[in-house]
Amino acid sequence: LGDIGLDNVDKIVARMVFHHLKSSLNEVMSYCREMLLPNGSLFLCEGIPPTKRAYNNWMETNNLLEKDRVFNTKDMWIKIFKKQKFTVSAMQTMAIKNLSTRNWLESRGESLETIRRVIALRTNMNKELKKDWNAKIIGDDVFVDTYWFFLRADA
């Protein structure tokens, strides 16, 4: 980034970026920390599972879609930022209610086989997981609540 005059910045926005950095997440976060001016902030937005109990189901679904990615819970993200010597100054979780699994996957351009497999995973969840996801099976689709974690970390 120094090549384009961004040696030091006061804000970094990482929306749905860090989960793509499995092998280099710590290195990239360290670089971000170094780039930030004193009192600068990094803003994170990443998807998270609805509950700790739903983590493995959420991982299984995401691994069908994006192999070699890092998927974390809210607590995991906080721990990672603190390890990189950031101060977590604000955080919020937002729910998107009744997301159509079929529509989501089709809009991503997923194959019919992938769509079938993800819908089967969600259809066959046990009672507790269906409650965690607020899952509603309607025809050949499953509607779920999805969750997004927003975090502000200061240098």
Our Rg estimate from Cα atoms comes to: 18 Å
Biggest sheet details = 5 strands, mixed
> Which residues form runs of ≥5 with pLDDT under 50?
none
Give helix and strand order, one letter per element, not per position: EHEHHEHHHEE
Strand content: 25-35%
Describe this protein's structure:
The chain is an alpha+beta fold and 155 residues long. It is 38% helix and 33% strand. It contains 6 helices and 5 strands, in the order E-H-E-H-H-E-H-H-H-E-E. Strands 1, 2, 3, 4 and 5 form a 5-stranded mixed β-sheet that branches. Strand 4 and strand 5 (141-154) form a beta hairpin. Helix 2 (55-65) packs antiparallel against helix 5 and helix 4 runs antiparallel to helix 5 (112-123). The radius of gyration is 18 Å and the shape is elongated. The model has no long low-confidence stretch (mean pLDDT 91).
Task: Please tag this protein with its features.
5-stranded mixed β-sheet; 6 helices
Topology, please?
Layout: E1 9-15, H1 25-35, E2 36-48, H2 55-65, H3 74-83, E3 87-100, H4 101-108, H5 112-123, H6 127-133, E4 136-138, E5 141-154
Parallel strand pairs: 1-2
Antiparallel strand pairs: 2-5, 3-5, 4-5
Helix pairs in contact: 2-5, 4-5
What's this, in brief?
By secondary structure, the chain is an alpha+beta fold. The protein is 38% helix and 33% strand.
